[in-house]
Amino acid sequence: MIKGDSDEYELLEYAVEQCYKLNNPNYILTCEIGVREGLGSKRMMDMLTTKNHYHIGIDPYGSLKYPHFDDPKKWNDNRESRTVVIEPGGTGAKYSNIMRDQLKEDFLPYPNFHLMNMTDLKFMELYSKGLPVYYDGHPCICSEYSCVHFDGPHRTPDILRQALFFCDRSHPGTTFCFDDYQVYNMELIQCVCMAFGFEEIKKGKQKIVLRREYET
């Protein structure tokens, strides 16, 4: 059974549903930063079974210790405290290689799933020109993302860097879904995304969805 440790997955599904409302791209490339046990990626892909789609999941696993929040002392959410340990100098997220291996097994029925077992920084370095895929006898470089779920590190600088990367690789209709937006500077991130034509289309208590409404 594929599990998750988030809430408001219906907003993530809404983001996927809305990403092709403004145009009809030849392919739909979706991405989740912070895959963990996989429920977010699963629900994204389940929304696209009738579409020509590819999904990227970015997660280093390896029980890495890294700064996870702008101010860990302000984080009092019991849901997240089950999986994150506050330590001096950063947090130790319990996302081990055992979890990664289980994810690979669970996702065997999803051939369009591509696990990028690396940090977001390494992914942006290696795949800045797009994802090479091979379909129906032809190679293709998928370089525009239709929907991105931001659910990795919850620090403003990290999310801002990710948002800029994917804003540059978006198209009219692209949707962004930000998880736990209240624990970082979402106002700043939203202002930056607005410069690329993104507008807020739905907000919950934990997730917020933006969509690129026009060319810039």
What's the CATH class label?
Alpha Beta
Tell me the β content.
Answer: 25-35%
Number of strands: 12
Shape: globular
Taking the alpha carbons of the first and last residues, their distance comes to: 42 Å
| Mean pLDDT value | 87
The SSE order reads HEHEEHEEHEHEEEHEHEE
Question: What name does the CATH topology carry?
Answer: Rossmann fold
CATH homologous superfamily title? Vaccinia Virus protein VP39
Number of helices: 7
Number of domains: 1
Main sheet makeup: 7 strands, mixed
Which blocks of ≥5 consecutive residues have pLDDT under 50? 76-92
Q: Enumerate the strands of the largest sheet in spatial order, edge to edge or round the barrel.
A: 6-2-1-9-10-12-11
Rg for CA atoms: 16 Å
Structural class: alpha/beta
CATH architectural group: 3-Layer(aba) Sandwich
Q: What portion of residues is helical?
A: 25-40%
Describe the structure.
This protein is of the alpha/beta class and 216 residues long. The protein has 7 helices and 12 strands. It has a single domain, classed as Rossmann fold, CATH 3.40.50.150. It has a 7-stranded mixed beta sheet, sandwiched between helices. A 3-stranded antiparallel beta sheet has the order 3-5-4, with no helix packed on it. The chain has a two-stranded antiparallel sheet with strand order 7-8. About 8% of the residues have low confidence.
Summary?
28% of the residues lie in helices and 26% in strands. With 216 residues, it is of the alpha/beta class. The N and C termini lie far apart (42 Å).
Sequence-ordered SSE layout with sheet pairings:
Blueprint: H1 9-18, E1 28-33, H2 39-46, E2 53-58, E3 65-66, H3 78-81, E4 84-87, E5 90-93, H4 97-106, E6 113-116, H5 120-126, E7 131-135, E8 138-142, E9 147-150, H6 156-167, E10 175-179, H7 186-194, E11 198-203, E12 207-212
Parallel strand pairs: 1-2, 1-9, 2-6, 9-10
Antiparallel strand pairs: 3-5, 4-5, 7-8, 10-12, 11-12
Helix pairs in contact: 6-7
